[in-house]
Amino acid sequence: MLSLPDDLRGEFKEPFGPVFTDARELLAESEGLLVAIGDVVTYHLTDAGRVPDVAVLDGYTERTPVEEAIREGTSSEVYDERVEATNPAATLTTEILVALADALPEPGTADDADEAENIEGGGHGDSGPKRTVIDVDGEEDLLTLPAIVAAPDGTSVVYGQPGEGMVRVPVDDGTRSRARGLVERMDGDHERAWELLGVPTG
Fold this sequence. Notes:
seven-stranded mixed sheet
């Protein structure tokens, strides 16, 4: 579907938002949906009391298998749905984009922060969205960008910045436009990717 060209890799090293080393401080600034990309990030957010609405895991951190404590702390048992998807390194496959689109609410259904906010203890109310974990065979890193593009306004997309901490990206028109611009510089069928994600192709 999409692949990352070598000349674009350097632009993915700059943090997309503020960097946090304390998950509780990050969560204090996060309202609405919470999307976590990566095992270690998901572990720290869950340990701080908030299970992500969407978590994307591949069992690795910086290409090293995660420790058992992190694996246990990100158990799929706390999620309502578990989805498996294949996504080789430096790519975004049809399979992973479909999984992400299915995990996120349809546009206009969960863009109100109060509706999507977790109740105390990391759970949802009866009318809240389902929590989904996507288990990736391959690498999940690049899914941060389509998550920013496809998630409702007010969502916090969180990913790990190697050697620094956790990056929180507040989804709005500005961050969405920046993420979309980077995706459209990847090689592949961009229009099909947007169609799969349910976002405008123009």
